[in-house]
Amino acid sequence: MTRVLLADDQGLVRAGFRMILEAQDDLEVVGEAGDGAVAVALARETAPDVVLMDIRMPRMDGIAATRELASVLPATKVLVLTTFDLDEYVYDALAAGASGFLLKDVGRDDLVAAVRVVAAGEALLAPTVTRRLLADFVRSRPVPRTTAPGVDVLTGRERDTLELLARGLSNAEAARELYVTEHTVKTHVSNVFLKLGLRDRVHAVIYAYEHGIVKPST
């Protein structure tokens, strides 16, 4: 059973998400929070697998709450809720430790699939949305360099794999591009995460943009 915590200052949004998630046999909503501070407190009590985290909330916003959860509950995955066109802080939320994001008008099936994907340890990287969003932020403002090691610690194949991830390719697509098996790509991905100290694919994309492995125009 995947345990989910809902954090949003709009009660109707929380109620709608709860109804959708609890209709699934494998998903359970363990709590609701109207602001980031309550979300962190409830997460400490309930240790959810996934937190659906709004960005704009009173007292403590979603970015600060995500950063704190990544520190105190690293096993809990954070899925950010955004209106996309209006939220200029999504990049900050991802850099703070979120594993991906959802649009607030997400469909029922996409919401359920996203929670399952993130709970399974994957990042929610939709190439047509996430990559565009990250590219927009990198293009529009200076981005602080991460404290991760330099790219020179990677082998040539590992760097190629990182570039393909940042372009939004799945493991299977990267395998076809590199003419190797999907298992080999998974090994390269694991090595990239380990060597660079990255949490998941979202943060691999951030690293790739920050270090010039891909450019916003690519």
**Main sheet, how many strands, which sense, barrel?**
5 strands, parallel
Please give the domain count. 2
* Count of DSSP-assigned helices: 10
Strand count:
5
Please state the overall shape, judged from the principal axes of the Cα atoms: globular
Share of residues in strands: 5-15%
| CATH hierarchy: architecture of the largest domain | 3-Layer(aba) Sandwich
Radius of gyration using CA atoms only: 17 Å
Overall pLDDT score: 84
Quickly name the level 1 CATH class of the largest domain. Answer: Alpha Beta
Low-confidence stretches: none
Classify the secondary structure makeup into a structural class: alpha/beta
Share of residues in helices: 40-55%
Output the helix-strand order.
Answer: EHEHEHEHEHHHHHH
- Within the largest sheet, what's the order of strands? 2-1-3-4-5
- The name CATH uses for the topology of the largest domain is Rossmann fold
Instruction: Give the CA-CA distance, first to last residue.
Output: 39 Å
Structural write-up:
The chain has 218 residues and is an alpha/beta fold. The protein has two domains: 2-124, Response regulator (Rossmann fold); 151-210, Arc Repressor Mutant, subunit A. It is built from ten helices and five strands, in the order βαβαβαβαβαααααα. A five-stranded parallel sheet has the order 2-1-3-4-5, sandwiched between helices. Helix 4 links the parallel strand 4 (77-82) and strand 5. The chain is globular, with a radius of gyration of 17 Å. 40% of the residues are buried. The mean pLDDT is 84. Keywords: DNA-binding, Phosphoprotein, Transcription, Transcription regulation. The modification 4-aspartylphosphate is found at residue 54. Pfam families: GerE (PF00196), Response_reg (PF00072). It comes from Motilibacter deserti. Residues 3-119 form the Response regulatory domain.
